[in-house]
Design goal:
Largest sheet: none
CATH architecture of the domain at 3-106: Alpha Horseshoe
Distance between the termini: 54 Å
Order of helices and strands: HHHHHHHHH
Radius of gyration: 18 Å
Strand content: under 5%
Number of helices: 9
CATH topology of the domain at 3-106: Serine Threonine Protein Phosphatase 5, Tetratricopeptide repeat
Oligomer: single chain
Structural class: mainly alpha
């Protein structure tokens, strides 16, 4: 889409906190109107609509829209965001295993600024499945890179949580 549309979407999201809970429908209407400007079949339309439903507390309505965005070919940075947000919504609606399956390949994919979000969301999905040690390992691994010291120790502790004892 063009930069004007991108700027208006960014402005809409920047104003999100100005809407009260009672005005959630008004916010979704703004996003719906922006989405309606997109060409038919655009993967951005269901993505933006899913984000609006998700951000206003309706993971159940967001899931099929995220799935539609991916099915329409949303990839790259927004595609990765979609997978993270879809996994979170799947967890919220009791489908955490699907979230694990969706995000696990992202651990070995191309690295970007969303790596820690992948790990955090995957950790939550794992925890919902009673796999807390695996989730904690992922979170420690993500945290280690940001510590001013102890990166190696935290990385080793993260691996020790999931490796079989020798």
């Amino acid at each position: 889409m063009n930069q004007d549309w991108e700027d208006r979407v960014a402005a809409a999201w920047a104003s999100f906190d100005e809407y009260t809970e009672d005005q959630a429908g008004d916010f979704r209407a703004v996003v719906d109107a922006l989405s309606a400007e997109l060409p038919a079949g655009s993967p951005l339309a269901p993505f933006e609509r899913a984000c609006a439903w998700d951000s206003t507390g309706h993971s159940d309505k967001a899931v099929p829209l995220y799935e539609e965005a991916l099915a329409r070919g949303l990839d790259g940075y927004r595609g990765r965001r979609t997978k993270i947000q879809l996994a979170s919504s799947l967890r919220n609606v009791g489908r955490a295993e699907e979230g694990v399956k969706l995000l696990t390949p992202e651990l070995t994919g191309p690295s970007d600024e969303l790596d820690d979000a992948v790990r955090a969301c995957l950790a939550l999905c794992l925890s919902s499945l009673g796999r807390d040690r695996e989730g904690l390992s992922l979170v420690l691994e993500a945290l280690a890179a940001h510590l001013p010291r102890y990166q190696r120790s935290m990385g080793n502790y993260a691996r020790a949580l999931v490796e079989p004892e020798s």
